[in-house]
Design brief:
The chain is mostly helical. It has helices at about 1-15, 40-45, 50-70, 70-75, 80-90, 95-100, 105-120, 125-180, 185-259. Helix 3 packs parallel to helix 9. The protein is rod-shaped, with a radius of gyration of 38 Å. The termini are far apart.
């Protein structure tokens, strides 16, 4: 037992203490400052970024609204066309006028304007009716085209706003570089350059998607305008049959009056 205790004591004496350890001590991890989030970097990039954020929110709202409103059911619906075809063949213009007033499609507005003129002017020439329908259809098509141009405007304005922020950041960077602030001027220089680059990226990040969605909705609008023109042509064809019948009925009456 004494021999075992003596051996343990010798081993304990042979183990070096921490102060005498042959291995270097591992240094403690430095306390780095917390890194900024992307939102913090954006908000710190100057007042121009607030304008870019407003443009981004507005462009997203426009895209959502266009997906909901620029669709075939909002311009030409198969249900309304079937109803209009049936009522026009029955010569029930007042019934179709009432149906058009209840519907919100673009073709319903064109039919409503046309039938309102026809019922109030029963002796009007068919060319006048055609001109009115084509004018109303052109107005509706122009409204559709004008709506999607807001995205094109954002696509052009956002990079210019970002360029303004870039110029402001570069001015601040050169002002810090020329100031007598010692080593602090390098921090201000890097902050100005970072602000300039963030504004540039922000303008492009808003402008590029806006132009992509503008091209997408412009193509959709052109297809819907073609559908609207086809529907208006169909309505006018049915109305022309009725006007032709009225001319044929009016011709014998005129001959009888002459004799």
């Amino acid at each position: 037992m004494r021999t075992l205790l003596s051996a343990i004591a010798l081993l304990a004496a042979a183990i070096p203490s921490p102060a005498q350890s042959p291995f270097p001590a591992v240094p403690a991890a430095p306390d780095f400052p917390h890194s900024k989030t992307v939102l913090d970097a954006i908000l710190a990039a100057g007042p121009v970024m607030y304008g870019l954020l407003a443009l981004s929110v507005f462009s997203v709202m426009l895209v959502v609204v266009y997906f909901m409103t620029i669709r075939r059911g909002a311009v030409v619906s198969s249900g309304f066309m079937a109803t209009a075809d049936a009522l026009l063949r029955k010569r029930d213009y007042l019934g179709l006028l009432a149906v058009s007033n209840r519907h919100g499609e673009a073709i319903a507005r064109v039919v409503q304007k046309t039938l309102d003129f026809t019922t109030k002017n029963p002796n009007a020439d068919f060319q006048q009716v055609r001109d009115l329908a084509e004018t109303e259809g052109t107005r509706v098509a122009a409204n559709l085209n004008n709506r999607v141009t807001y995205l094109a405007d954002i696509g052009m304005i956002a990079p210019l706003v970002g360029l303004l922020g870039t110029a402001i950041g570069i001015v601040r960077a050169f002002a810090a570089l020329g100031a007598d602030l010692g080593t602090a001027r390098y921090a201000l220089l890097s902050k100005g350059v970072s602000e300039a680059l963030i504004n540039t990226c922000g303008g492009l990040a808003i402008g590029i998607p806006a132009m992509i969605f503008y091209a997408f909705f412009r193509g959709r609008v052109q297809r819907l305008i073609s559908d609207l023109e086809s529907a208006v042509t169909h309505i006018l064809a049915l109305l022309s049959v009725h006007h032709g019948e009225k001319r044929q009925e009016r011709a014998p009456a005129l001959l009888e009056n002459e004799f």
